[in-house]
Write the structure tokens for this entry.
Amino acid sequence: MNTTGVANLLGVSKSTVQRWIKQLDLDMSRNDLGHFDFTEEEISMLKQIQEQVQKGILLQDVVLPPKKTRKGKAVHTVQNPEMETIIEKINDLDRRVNEKADNVVSYQLLSHRRELEEFENQVVQLNKRIELLEKKLSEVNQTNAPAKLTNLNQIHEKRKGKKKNIFMMLFGF
């Protein structure tokens, strides 16, 4: 019977049954999923605990019936030479797969490092070309600067002259 079934049988909640098991450190059997799987003997022990609690005995003062020795199941392992060779082969294949995976990762890391170094070299070359172009641009600007200034002065003088001519025509000086 599971915990819910025992709780319903005793008229208590599931958490009460679980609390009794935990606080009294009861050794209850469990199923494959780890859930409690109560036998008739364990249910009768829980009924005795419930009777004592209903009489007003504190849980830590509850007297448990003597524990019966549990009979464990002996697991018999078959020593089969064919099985052992298969297990050895599986272990060997597992080791080889792990080595291969390590080698692949190492190769990928080295490839990525090489690509990064190539990109770094390209960046350095591009920086050098940019510096060279900036230097040439500044040289061109320096040689053209005086010519531009003279051109600007000439344009300014022409405008000044036109303004003067227009002023003279209007006022007739």
